[in-house]
Specification:
- The chain has 16 helices and 2 strands.
- The protein is mainly α.
- The protein has a two-stranded antiparallel sheet with strand order 1-2.
- Helix 7 packs across helix 13.
- The two termini are about 15 Å apart.
- Keywords: Cell inner membrane, Cell membrane, Membrane, Sugar transport, Transmembrane, Transmembrane helix, Transport.
- One of its GO terms (cellular component) is plasma membrane.
């Protein structure tokens, strides 16, 4: 009875944190589509949005797991520069096969993550301090590796990671039917996952959003996915970087929601003493979280370097801020224990659409930074308000 009364008190707002982000994305898309006279939604611009924001979205996947566990990583932008520099040295200066450049960059990213994970997990230094030091150290290492110069050009296959497309696999219609087919499969997969998750919450007597709101969310997401697929299909087809990003989203969604490691991450961020008492190897979970963040930073560095066709010691500046902002806008809690991979991706898309839309409107970078700061503050304020409301409901 008590549980029922709490659900009634919470009402439709009980899952506003989860459902509201989808509505916010749709509203922002419509808003900037109107303000830019439709320029935002041209096929070319939609494709550019994917390519331009892919590396930040990759970083956001790892960052949200770090934040869920109650940590932060300020070094990812510098790791992007360092791993891009390593790829440049291997592929261009040493003239080795481009696949070895990718493997070398990922290995360096993993070693960087292991280094930071050691200090955080086993020595006990706060992640803020460790990664702040890493932000400085790895930027310096990037300059040393490159000799404080730039490396270019990269081999064609390497560049295609960020600039290549799959097109014509099911062509002959004036658009790429294969891209639309994949869009439909994504809609079906999303609906099945959401329905399964809803049934699971109901089975454990957890609060769920009203069925009308649940259906509305599915319809909105389906429309967004298919409209997005149509725009890609009528331009150059499916970007290769989008395939990489989709693969990472699926893998890490499963890891965070369906594996013991993922449940351990939430347990550590939600209640650290209880996690220790329950037998979770907290130190090792934290260690592997930072190794994972290093690997994802390397992948982002590869994508960014491939897009620019340039290894630059100044690459990745402020990427950590964009990734962190994406996580908080996407529903991650400042205190840890709350957050989702899909939410971080949507938060990153919101930031990317805002950047792109304001640029199309001719708004200067100074005003853009101020507006993004206010949006981030609003997202964190909503998190605080949501917790207070939840506490009032429980009382």
């Amino acid at each position: 009875m008590t549980s029922l009364m709490q659900s009634l008190k919470a009402g439709p707002l009980a899952n506003l944190r989860q459902s509201g982000i989808y509505i916010a994305l749709a509203v922002i898309i419509v808003l900037f589509a109107v303000l830019t006279d439709g320029s935002l939604l041209t096929s070319q611009n939609v494709t550019n949005l994917v390519v331009q924001n892919s590396y930040v979205l990759i970083l956001a996947i790892g960052m949200v797991m770090i934040i869920i566990a109650g940590h932060i990583d300020l070094s990812v932008g510098s790791v992007v520069a360092l791993t891009g520099a390593v790829a440049g040295v291997v592929a261009v200066r040493m003239e080795l096969p481009w696949i070895l450049a990718i493997l070398a960059a990922i290995l360096v990213g993993a070693l960087v993550g292991a280094w930071q994970g050691f200090w955080v997990a086993f020595v006990g230094i706060p992640a803020f301090i460790v990664t702040l030091a890493g932000m400085l150290a790895f930027r310096g290492l990037a300059m040393i590796v490159l000799g404080n110069t730039q490396i270019s050009p990269f081999p064609g296959p390497f560049r295609s990671i960020a600039s290549g497309y799959l097109n014509g696999l099911l062509g002959g219609y004036g658009y790429d039917a294969f891209t639309l087919l994949l869009g439909g499969l994504c809609v079906a997969a999303f609906a099945w996952m959401q329905w399964s998750a809803r049934r699971g919450r109901i089975a454990y007597e957890q609060t769920v959003e009203p069925m009308a709101l649940f259906i509305l969310k599915l319809v909105l997401v389906a429309l967004l996915i298919m409209a997005f697929a149509w725009k890609l299909a009528t331009y150059k087809g499916l970007p290769i970087v989008l395939i990489i990003l989709a693969f990472l989203i699926v893998i890490y969604t499963v890891v965070t929601s369906r594996t013991p490691f993922g449940r351990s991450v939430y347990a550590i961020g939600g209640n650290l003493p209880a996690a220790r008492l329950s037998g979770i190897k907290v130190k090792w979970v934290n260690f592997w979280l930072f190794v994972n963040m290093g690997v994802l930073s390397a992948i982002a560095g590869i994508v960014f370097t491939a897009r620019l066709n340039l290894a630059n010691p100044k690459a990745g500046q402020n990427f950590e801020l964009d990734a962190i902002a994406a996580c908080f806008i996407g529903g991650a809690a400042v205190s840890g224990g709350v957050g989702r991979v899909v939410g971080a991706i949507i938060g990153g898309l919101i930031m990317g659409i805002m950047n792109n839309g304001m640029s199309l409107m001719g708004i200067g970078i100074d005003y853009q930074q101020a507006i993004k700061g206010l949006v981030l503050l609003g997202a964190v304020a909503f998190d605080v308000w949501n917790k207070r409301r939840a506490g009032a409901v429980e009382a």
